[in-house]
Amino acid sequence: MLNRRAPDVPLNRTTSTSSITYAIPCIGPAIEFLRHCHRRAPFLFFNGNTFADVGRQLVTALFAELPTARRREVMSAVAHCIAGVLDHESMAQIVNALSEAADFQPGDRVKTLRGSMSGKIVRVLEDGRVVWRADSGTELTALPESLIREHKG
Q1: Range of 127's domain?
Q2: Which of 57, 72, 96, 123 has its CA 20 to 30 A from that of 22?
Q3: pLDDT tens digits, residue range 15-68?
Q4: 123, pLDDT greater than 60
Q5: How confident is the model at residue 5 (pLDDT cuts 50, 70, 90)?
Q6: CA 86 to CA 127: how far, in whole Å?
Q7: Are the C-beta atoms of 129 and 143 separated by less than 8 Å?
Q8: Among candidates 79, 99, 81, which has minimal Cα distance to 90?
Q9: Is 153 helix (H, G, I), strand (E, B) or coil?
Q10: Number of domains in the chain
Q11: Are 124 and 106 in contact (CB under 8 A)?
Q12: Contact 147, 134 (CB under 8 A)
C-alpha cells in the first residue's frame, strides 16, 4: 500500500519563460488527501506532524527551484493547511504569491515575505539587489527573493 500512487493526484508543475508558475490545482488533491488523513487521526500521537511532514516533502520536491526562504514559507503554508490551521484558498494565494518571479522595477509596491513591512522599490542595483523605501520612510537594501509584490485589492 505504501508504494501505490494515489489515484487522481497528478504532481506536476508547469513553467513559463517570464516567471515560474506552479499549478496549485495539481497538488491541491494531494494536500486535501493529507488533510483528510490528518482529520481521521489514524495514529495515537503526532497525526498533524506526520501528514504535514509528507506535505513538506512534496513541497521540497516540487518547488526545488524556489529560493530557500520562499520554499520554506511555501512549506509552512502547506503544512498549516494540512493541519487545518489555514484554509485551502489562503494557502493557494500564499503559494502563488511566493512562486512569482522576483522581477521588480522602481515604483513597484512590495512587502516582506512575512508581510511585516511594506513599501516601494526605489532602484535596482547592478548586482541584482533592490533598494526599497519602507512605508515608515526607512530605506533598505534586500535580495529580490526576500520580497513579494504587493497586489492591490
Answers
A1: 109-149
A2: 123
A3: 333 334 444 457 888 899 999 888 888 777 776 688 899 999 999 998 888 888
A4: yes
A5: very low
A6: 37
A7: yes
A8: 81
A9: coil
A10: 2
A11: yes
A12: no
Claim to verify: residue 62 and residue 117 sit in the same structural domain: no
Q: Given the C-alpha cell 503544512, which residue does it identify?
A: 79
Whether residue 17 lies inside any domain: the answer is no
3-state secondary structure of 7: coil
Task: State the Cα angle at 94 between 80 and 25, rounded to 5°.
Answer: 85
Looking at the fold, whether 95 and 113 belong to one and the same domain comes out as no
Q: Quick: pLDDT tens for 16-30.
A: 333 344 444 578 888
Examine the domain organization and report whether 82 and 118 are in the same domain.
Answer: no
Nearest to 43 by CA among 56, 29, 53: 53
**What's the confidence (pLDDT) of residue 12?**
40
Q: Nine-digit cell at 57?
A: 516533502
Report yes or no on 61 lying in a domain. Answer: yes
**117 and 52 both lie in a single domain:** no
Instruction: Tell me, yes or no, whether 131 and 91 share the same domain.
Output: no
